[in-house]
Amino acid sequence: MQTNAFLIEQLTDHTIDLLEKVLAEAPVKTASRSQIASRNRRIRSGIHDIVDCSTKKLVPELKIATVLIVDIRGFTQFTLANRPTQIVALLNFFFTRMVNLVHSYDGVVDKFMGDSVMAVFGLKNKRKPRFSSLDAVRCAAEMQLAMEDVNQFGARLGLEPIYVGIGLHCGEVVATTLGCDEHSEYTVIGDTVNTAARVEAHSLRGQVLLTGPLRSLVSKQVDVSEPVEVFVKGQSLPVKLFSLNSVTSPAADTDGGEADQDIFVIPRCEVRKSPRVPVNLPMQYWHVEGASVSDEVCEGEILDLGYYGMRAKTSECLEPLENIKFPFSLATASPGAHDIYAKVLRTNKVRGEYVSSLEFTAIPDLCERSLHSFIDRTLA
């Protein structure tokens, strides 16, 4: 990729060459060496102003915006089980659909982060925050609807379905250019961005999570589930998260939203029900925060197992939407290649101990087959 400095040099040389050719053909007074040098400096400075969008020319701005982050669930395990060419083809198709949806709602794609996309709404227009927030929520709903097309494309490649979780938050952001002459990016930073990332980390597959402030802005256009309170890093108080069930479509803005086609309903992932078998097995597990795994080993007991989840008893309270991982051996072990990741759905206190229901969010294929076989044999 050509740097700004290289482009400036090339354009300056080209402009000076053209100018010298014109002057050579025109009957004008010959310029002195100092005049030519001064002229060339002015040309270089003018081209630099056009080409170089440096941070000193873009003053940081404080804006009210809605940040959306969409991430593929269990993508690490998915990549290990498939060929790189398949993964790249699917990712490109996925990114194309997501970016097109962001642009259709007047949003800005801030960046790709591995298998996730961060988008911002409210930067490009002067509409009230509630309108750009509604655009963001509608975009998130359409992203979940678009996963059917993504998985149809994946099926043609011989791939299993993938699912995404989406988190949204609104508030103040600082919009600016970060970087240097060689590379810079226009982006947004601030607590709103950090909170959106942590909300997304709490989302389950097929889920769209809204924070309380965002839900308040769009309350008349959305249907949400009862809120769940979670503690997120950087926040002293728990954050209320609402799972989006449906949102009015743009068509509802003109006809009152009475028709069914004027509502985007978040598609439910396939019903994840399976037989449950009592096991009463000791378990060691680790807390997961973002991409970091705690060094502290915690202990508990698995009460029952299903194909897609389990119930576990612990001495500590596992918060709803918290993530843990545990070894597939279901006994004392060290973290390794056969770890299962799970998200807490709910926790109840029973006789002084805590019983949590968990859904598996990432499980290696070999572990999944063995788990299914174990449950089937136990029930036989």
Q: How would you describe what is shown here?
A:
The chain folds into 3 domains: 4-52, no CATH class; 61-265, Alpha-Beta Plaits, CATH 3.30.70; 277-379, predicted glycosyltransferase like domains (Thrombin, subunit H), CATH 2.40.10.220. It is 35% helix and 33% strand. It has helices at 4-25, 33-51, 75-80, 84-104, 129-156, 191-202, 212-217, 252-255, 365-379; strands at 61-72, 107-113, 116-121, 164-179, 184-189, 208-211, 222-224, 228-230, 239-248, 263-265, 277-289, 292-293, 298-305, 309-314, 323-327, 339-350, 353-362. The protein is elongated.
What is the structure about, briefly put?
By secondary structure, the chain is an alpha+beta fold.
Key terms:
alpha+beta, 380 residues, Thrombin, subunit H, 35% helix, Alpha-Beta Plaits, ten-stranded mixed β-sheet, 3 domains, six-stranded antiparallel barrel
CATH superfamily of the largest domain: Nucleotide cyclase, GGDEF domain
Which structural class matches the secondary elements?
Answer: alpha+beta
**What is the CA-CA span between the terminal residues?**
62 Å
CATH level-3 fold name of the largest domain: Alpha-Beta Plaits
- H/E element order: HHEHHEEHEEHEHEEEHEEEEEEEEH
Strand coverage percent: 25-35%
Mean pLDDT: 83
Poorly predicted residue ranges: 330-336
Principal-axes shape call:
elongated
Number of helices: 9
How many domain regions? 3
Helix share of residues? 25-40%
The whole-angstrom Rg is 27 Å
- The appropriate CATH architecture of the largest domain is 2-Layer Sandwich
